[in-house]
TrEMBL record:
Protein name, entry field: Helitron helicase-like domain-containing protein
Keywords: Coiled coil
Biased composition (Basic residues): 1-21
Region Disordered, residue ranges: 1-79, 138-192
Coiled-coil parts of chain: 242-269
Higher taxonomy: Eukaryota, Metazoa, Ecdysozoa, Arthropoda, Chelicerata
Basic and acidic residues bias spans: 22-34, 50-63, 139-155, 162-192
PANTHER family associated with the record: ATP-DEPENDENT DNA HELICASE, DNA BINDING PROTEIN-LIKE
Recorded superkingdom: Eukaryota
Gene: B5V51_7166
Native organism: Trichonephila clavata (Joro spider)
Amino acid sequence: MPKRKSNLSKNTRKAKTQRLQRKNESQKDRESRHTNCRLGISMSRSNESSSERNERLQLDRTRHSSLRSQESLESREKRLQIDRIQHTVSRSLQSRDSREQRLEDDRIRHAFSRTIESEGSREQRLEYDRIRHAFSRSLESDDSREQRLEDDRIRHAVSRSQEPDDSREQRLESDRHYRQKQREFESQEQHDIRVTEQCDRYHESQGQRIERLAHLRESVSAIRQSETNFDRKRRLITARQTTSALRDIEREENRRQRLNNDHIRRTNRRNIAWREKFNSGFNYDTQINYSAASEIGPMNVCCNYCKALRWKDESKGMCCSSGKVCLDSIQQPPEPLKSLLCGEHDQSQHFLNNIRRYNSAFQMTSFGAKEVHEGNYMPTFKIQGQLYHLIGSLLPVDNARESFLQIYFISDYVLQRDARLQCFPNLNPMLVESLQSMLIEINSYIRDFKTALQYFPPNSNENDYKIVINADRRPSAEHRGRHNEPTTNEVSVLLASQPSPVNCLF
């Protein structure tokens, strides 16, 4: 902060001595002197009467007015810059109650000063405010602008909900006068554009209005789809706070009117008939109550076995075949997968937008088929014959780069993550590492494969192993009884002394 100019006299010896002392004082001594001065001034002002205070303020205003009338433009800008810095520092340290009290005092003082100002002074003040606001808003960021507009909307809504009828009429009259002044200075082109837009809006048909509102909804939807998860949360929190603040202060009459309008709007939506049913699936209308087109009754019939709900005319046994089918309850996904899927994670939006890439980064097998026939235009593909999920070698061959299941056998988890990011560079490294740790910890197949690899003899030439997961899919040319699924808890032992063309690991 720049050092303020001394207000000591230039003539007296005492003033010269004090000026010399202040010139040589340290920053700590200077702050101590200012603190003592502030305390002394605060004590003296706390003991003065109301008439003494008004007299002091009047003398200060006269002195300031005299000094400011003589200062140059450069000195004025320098003084205002120092004042802005001092105000910023002091306001950052004040409490919430002190801030509210200061703003209330400012509002009272401004209201009193504006009641006695002349028309010329008012126009000059408004012009200066417009210039200052235009300059400050040209420097603000997008986030600051959105925050300022949101604060303005809340403030205007609160003030208008509390204003009496005469104040409202006065405000509307001022707005009309302001718009009239604006239209006096607009060009002929601006006037024609404004009148054309108003005429189009006034003469638009019901279909044009619906189309305009549909375009508006699409624009809003596009904006909200492009926003980040943080921006969406901030928008929803701000909307909830705004709605809560408005409904806390709304009058009973306004509340009844709002609830009545909501009831009318819902009733109108339900009364719209579903007439054009042909190809209506491609033209969904949110205002049509499609459920009213069919009456199938409530879903209140409970199954005696699985407790599933069904409609009255539904056949029995559709849910669980009268108790013959018993499914295990669905377990909750582990963290962080659950938070990512439910939108509770900071990276949920990124994860859901790239969920296929994340799935491919952690896949253990490749997909294959012997015969694939495609037509002229086919957005999907059809496979004739047997589907295959290929595992391949558990370790890379001939120093090739790891892929699919081989990545899970890299001992260093950081190198595992880097190997996945080499295949999919647009993924989040921290998220990949977190999902990787989750799969290694809870996935039974990964644990079984890693355990099986530890039992392979090191530096063995007989490395042709087959891992049998499903006993129904036995290797080709093998006896069907060799790979039968055990009926009791058994332990299989493979003797190394017995010759075998193919080693099998169970």
